[in-house]
Design a protein that fits this description.
It is a single chain. With 444 residues, this protein is of the alpha/beta class. It is 24% helix and 21% strand. Helix 6 crosses helix 7 and helix 7 runs parallel beside helix 8. The protein starts with a strand and ends in a 5-residue tail after the last helix. The structure holds coenzyme A.
Length: 444
């Protein structure tokens, strides 16, 4: 039985000590969050679980310590300051494992899920539009579901439908959902995109990760034929390739003719593209990110990015030293799946340099640290910055691409890896890297 009410009434369902899931990204249910936090004084020890929230997140304000505590499963720009100030906890986890947390008997039994959905259709089904991912598991397993019901949420085919009777509390809401305006790739990113795209053959099935470089790779694929999409997420970059007839999915071994994903982040134009589009299917992350599914695609290509790669091939994609930047995400799910697929190609693509951090910009004080040059630091490093997390291990890494070229690390020794990665570093850092490689005994 659904109670239609306002946000203030709906959030009364939350009690002290509850575990509450908040849907994230474009569907972040901000009015419910604000109504919940307005009740903060009367609540204690409410545990929130979030992934890539958009918009204000007032529960991280220091005044709510002891009232709300947030567990962040993938960090974004809005919660990064709170995570790194110790006012929010980060949980490292593969995206594909998140639903496991919410299963009966799992470590995080959910009391309440806050979501946002489209209005019900004539059969009573609402759509979770661009965010099925882990929200499917949250809706299926939470004791109570509270939803914003918003006509601006696109209706998307696949497994994101929720019958209105599953909503314990429904709040009518009519505002645009959060939009992500993609950045136009710069020249460096375009070069990297082209090197990555050279590894993508006609008929390949693609996963393109988060960030500007995967979109740059898409832009370099306009002359390919019959590409398919089986991915964790996509953004605006795919629309052009669908309109040009490049993405058809015609050769996919599963979900032929369909673009399969578990979430989508992009512009309102992209949301229009999703709406009632039979070509797009949204599935839970347990399907999209399952390496056993991914490995079934012939010529599966996975393009992901990184913050640092060390000379042995260890990849950090989620932290800058001890600063938590993003999360494990689906990187390893896809790197492994692509590696197991027949003719599969896992690709890590990153620019060779980054801007040197403003604070403490001299030579960092740990062994083998490189000296910044002209305000730039190298993202190819002798050893990862102390505290950096290894997101993809050196045994999993295959192709690495920068604007200086491309290398294949599978089956290569540490010395061979160091040599080929130095060749992919920016020229102004190569001498420092060579010296460090000798000192680390990577070269005999
Ligand atoms: N040291 C210090 N700062 C660094 C750095 C380094 N080694 N590398 C990058 N940075 C800075 C950049 O200068 C940039 O700063 P700015 O925001 O002030 O411009 C910022 O960190 C982000 O770097 P950028 O290269 O622009 O990141 P991106 O948006 O392309 O995202 C990842 C790259 C790796 C963070 C992103 O792909 C990610 O989170 N990956 C993990 C999850 C994943 O791969 N999922 C795959 C399936 S979707």
């Amino acid at each position: 039985m659904t109670t239609w009410c306002d946000a203030k009434t709906a959030v009364q369902v939350v009690e002290s000590g509850n575990n509450v899931y908040l849907q994230g990204m474009s569907l972040t249910p901000t009015p419910l969050i604000e109504a919940l936090v307005a009740r903060g004084e009367e609540l204690r020890n409410v545990e929130l679980y979030t992934i890539l929230m958009f918009g204000p997140i007032p529960y991280t304000d220091p005044r709510w310590v002891g009232h709300f505590h947030v567990n962040v499963l993938f960090v974004g720009a809005f919660d990064r300051p709170a995570v790194n100030a110790g006012r929010a906890s980060y949980i490292p986890i593969y995206l594909s494992s998140i639903p496991k947390l919410f299963l009966p008997g799992g470590p995080v039994p959910l009391d309440v899920a806050f979501i946002q959905v489209s209005p019900p259709d004539k059969h009573g089904f609402c759509s979770m539009g661009p965010s099925v991912d882990f929200s499917r598991a949250a809706v299926d397993h939470a004791r109570q579901v509270v939803a914003l019901v918003n006509p601006n949420v696109p209706r998307v085919y696949g497994h994101g439908f929720v019958h209105v009777s599953r909503l314990d509390y429904a709040v009518k809401w009519d505002r645009p959902i959060y939009e992500v305006k993609g950045e136009v790739p710069d020249e460096t990113q375009r070069v990297i995109g082209r090197y990555a795209a050279e590894l993508i053959e006609d008929g390949s099935t693609l996963q393109l990760g988060i960030g500007a470089i995967p979109d740059a790779a898409l832009q370099a694929l306009t002359d390919r034929r019959d590409l398919g999409i089986h991915t964790e997420m996509f953004s605006d970059g795919v629309i052009d390739l669908v309109e040009r007839g490049v993405i058809t999915g015609a050769r996919k071994v599963r979900d032929r003719g369909k673009m399969v994903t578990c979430f989508v982040m992009g512009s309102h134009r992209l949301m229009d593209f999703l709406d009632n589009n039979p070509m797009v299917k949204m599935y839970p992350v347990t399907y999209t990110n399952n390496p056993q599914i991914i490995r079934q695609f012939d010529h599966f290509v996975s393009v992901n990015s990184a913050l640092q790669v060390d000379l042995t091939g260890q990849v950090c994609a989620e932290s800058i030293g001890t600063i938590q930047y993003s999360g494990v995400g689906g990187q390893m799910d896809f790197m492994r799946g692509a590696a197991l697929a027949p003719h599969g190609r896992p690709i890590l693509a990153l620019s060779a340099t980054a801007r040197a951090p403003k604070t403490g910009a001299g030579t960092p004080s740990y062994p083998y640290a490189l000296t910044p040059v002209d305000g730039q630091i190298s993202r190819i490093v002798p050893i990862l910055t102390p505290g950096a997390a290894v997101t993809t291990t050196r045994a999993h890494v295959h192709y690495v691409v920068t604007e200086y070229g491309r290398t294949m690390l599978l089956g290569r020794s540490l010395a061979e890896r160091a040599r080929s990665l130095i060749a992919l570093a920016a020229p102004q850092f190569r001498e420092q890297l060579e010296r460090a490689a000798y000192n680390l005994h990577l070269f005999s």
